[in-house]
Design brief:
Order of helices and strands: EEEEEH
Strand order of the largest sheet: 1-2-5-4-3
Mean pLDDT: 90
Largest sheet: 5 strands, antiparallel
């Protein structure tokens, strides 16, 4: 899993798995879900991230026990 914040476009991409995107769906305005050919979610794109995400330039990752 990988997270990339692009300052120039103010876009946050959460890549959940590697692989090509076959289909994209803007489920809610500014939230794009990308799927592979089998319908599995590949990534989540958040447009205008600085307005939607607290601290878009930093990330904390936790694994629940």
């Amino acid at each position: 899993m990988k997270a990339v914040y692009d300052v120039k476009t103010d876009t946050l991409v959460l890549e959940l798995r590697a692989g090509p995107v076959a289909e994209s769906n803007e489920d809610k305005p500014g939230i794009i879900l990308d799927y592979d050919a089998d319908g599995n979610i590949v990534s989540i794109e958040i447009l205008d991230a600085s307005r939607r995400v607290e601290e878009a330039r930093s990330m904390r990752f936790e694994v629940a026990a």
